[in-house]
Automatic annotation (TrEMBL):
Protein task: Catalyzes the third of the four reactions of the long-chain fatty acids elongation cycle. This endoplasmic reticulum-bound enzymatic process, allows the addition of two carbons to the chain of long- and very long-chain fatty acids/VLCFAs per cycle. This enzyme catalyzes the dehydration of the 3-hydroxyacyl-CoA intermediate into trans-2,3-enoyl-CoA, within each cycle of fatty acid elongation. Thereby, it participates to the production of VLCFAs of different chain lengths that are involved in multiple biological processes as precursors of membrane lipids and lipid mediators.
Gene Ontology molecular functions: very-long-chain (3R)-3-hydroxyacyl-CoA dehydratase activity
Catalytic reactions of this protein: a very-long-chain (3R)-3-hydroxyacyl-CoA = a very-long-chain (2E)-enoyl-CoA + H2O
Pathway assignment: Lipid metabolism; fatty acid biosynthesis
EC number: 4.2.1.134
Gene Ontology cellular component terms for the protein in this record: endoplasmic reticulum membrane
Membrane topology reported for the UniProt record: Multi-pass membrane protein
Signal peptide start-end: none
UniProt superkingdom: Eukaryota
Protein's UniProt name: Very-long-chain (3R)-3-hydroxyacyl-CoA dehydratase
Family: Belongs to the very long-chain fatty acids dehydratase HACD family.
Lineage, highest ranks first: Eukaryota, Viridiplantae, Streptophyta, Embryophyta, Tracheophyta
Subcellular location, principal: endoplasmic reticulum
Length: 263
């Protein structure tokens, strides 16, 4: 029974990771296409539905941690997913005035690139049934990138592949790609965080004027809620929260790279 349970777990996590990967790939594709075609003003309209679906699907990761399907600590997963859901639904969807700002573009691109890398790796991990070394994963990615490059360069002529020394090319690029794989967050995390904080700040005047999600007294619950001050407090939370998460990811990077050196 344990073997069956493990197989079901792997199947479920494999499907989950690849489905969400496809969702984020759509988000990035639509965002870049809209950006090139009409500028940043049209990015949100192009990505709204896939962004909402892909980001909301991340709620399952909290449940995965709670029930023990994955080892990721809920204490690290919850604030990150919570903040993203807050931006997705509590800011961008709730206050359309923010949707045309250029920070939406930096936010969406930062999120989507990060998640495409993450979900593709874990999807591969669950599909194969074991945790491949990061070096092996990068070699696979490199092979696909090199194959695509040469297919484009030679317009479908497969003969040039006979001239490729894949082993040599892998050896030349693998170190750079390994560093890139664990260093993208060093750029994407700050751009994502700054975009999140900026969009919340931009939304504050619209929140105050609209009084959306406000609960005023008197009422039968004898309770009041001010969404404006809640969002202002949320900005303050990013001050200690952002560096804490960044430090956590630096530790994960160090751990992963040390494992790769011994793989």
């Amino acid at each position: 029974m344990a073997g069956v349970g493990s197989a079901v777990r792997r199947l479920y996590l494999s499907v989950y990771n690849w489905v969400v990967f496809v969702g984020w790939a759509q988000v990035l594709y639509y965002a870049v296409t809209a950006l090139l075609d009409g500028g940043h003003e049209g990015v949100y309209a192009a990505v709204e539905r896939p962004l909402q679906l892909a980001q909301t699907a991340a709620v399952m990761e909290i449940l995965h941690g709670l029930v023990g399907l994955v080892r990721s600590p809920v204490t690290a997963t919850l604030p990150q997913i919570g903040s993203r859901l807050f931006l997705t639904w509590g800011i961008l969807w709730s206050f359309p005035e923010t949707q045309s700002h250029i920070l939406v573009t930096s936010l969406v691109i930062s999120w989507s690139i990060t998640e495409i890398i993450r979900y593709s790796f874990f999807g591969l991990k669950e599909t194969l049934g074991f945790a491949p070394s990061w070096l092996l994963w990068l070699r696979l990615v490199l092979f696909l990138l090199q194959a695509g490059h040469h297919l484009i360069k030679f317009r479908g002529n497969l003969l040039p592949f006979q001239k490729l020394d894949l082993k040599s090319e892998l050896h030349s690029f693998v170190v750079a790609l390994l560093i890139c794989r664990y260093s993208t967050f060093m750029i994407l995390y700050p751009t994502g965080i700054l975009s999140e904080v900026g969009l919340i700040y931009i939304a504050l005047p619209y929140i105050k004027v609209s009084e959306k999600y406000f609960v005023k007294m008197p009422n039968k619950w004898n309770f009041s809620f001010d969404y404006f001050y809640t969002c202002a407090i949320a900005i303050g939370v990013y001050v200690p929260g952002g560096p804490h998460m960044f430090t956590y990811m630096l530790a994960q990077r160090k751990k992963a790279l040390s494992k790769a050196k011994t793989a």
